[in-house]
Amino acid sequence: MLSSRGFVLLLIGVVTFSSNAARYYSPCQGDSYSNTWPAPCIDGNHPFGDGWLLVQQRVDETGNFYRSWTDYKSKFGQGDNFWVGLDAIHRAVSSGTYELIVEMVGEYGEYRFARYTNFLIGNETESYALKELGQYSGTAGDGLVTHKGAVFSTYDRDRDQNANQNCAVGLKGGWWFARSCMDRSVQSCNLNGKLAEQGGTLYWRVRRGSESLKYVRMMIREAE
């Protein structure tokens, strides 16, 4: 397990865990939210460049992501495992065009990433609906495509499209759930569930198959 100061480094093709990984993390520079973003930023020798605002990170089982609507609206977590808050995400991405990168390591140790050119969510009145994704590129496959248009749902505010099940309860975390909570036949994902070691409801699924995830993080940056 990493120390509270040690963040996972997810490098293209190589996964390195280091106690001095904080060199990748610093106050935000060159972004509209550099003084107010409530989480670390990536400003350093990262393969995808500088200026990334960390939205979410999961590196071990110590973080509890089975949380209420109020918790997901605001920030929760500490150290290596955190969620920055839907309000903060909305304020950032609604101020301009923001790209999203999801980095992940599967239960068998393979690193993958998914990149989207125009990540946009609505405000609380709109239940933080996932409005736009833009163009996909990467090595993970487009696991978010079926979630576009979905609203955010938690165990205490069931707003998913499944009339027979509360997806947040079944998958142990809040997310933009599509019509089916966990349909193995479609592209889908849930990045706020349980890690592979905890039962594997945190996953990224594409047509060629899927596996539970051991590590994941989401980050956004204003498009150039």
Automatic annotation (TrEMBL):
A Gene Ontology CC term for this entry? extracellular space
Keyword Signal set for record:
yes
Claim: Signal is one of the keywords in the record:
yes
Question: Matching PANTHER family, A to Z?
Answer: FI21813P1-RELATED, FIBRINOGEN/TENASCIN/ANGIOPOEITIN
Boundaries of each Fibrinogen C-terminal domain copy?
19-224
Q: Which Pfam families match?
A: Fibrinogen_C
**Protein name as catalogued:** Angiopoietin-1
The residues forming the signal peptide are: 1-21
Q: Which InterPro entries match?
A: Fibrinogen-like_C (IPR036056), Fibrinogen_a/b/g_C_1 (IPR014716), Fibrinogen_a/b/g_C_dom (IPR002181), Fibrinogen_C-term_domain (IPR050373)
**Which source organism?**
Culex quinquefasciatus
Task: Give the keywords, sorted.
Answer: Signal
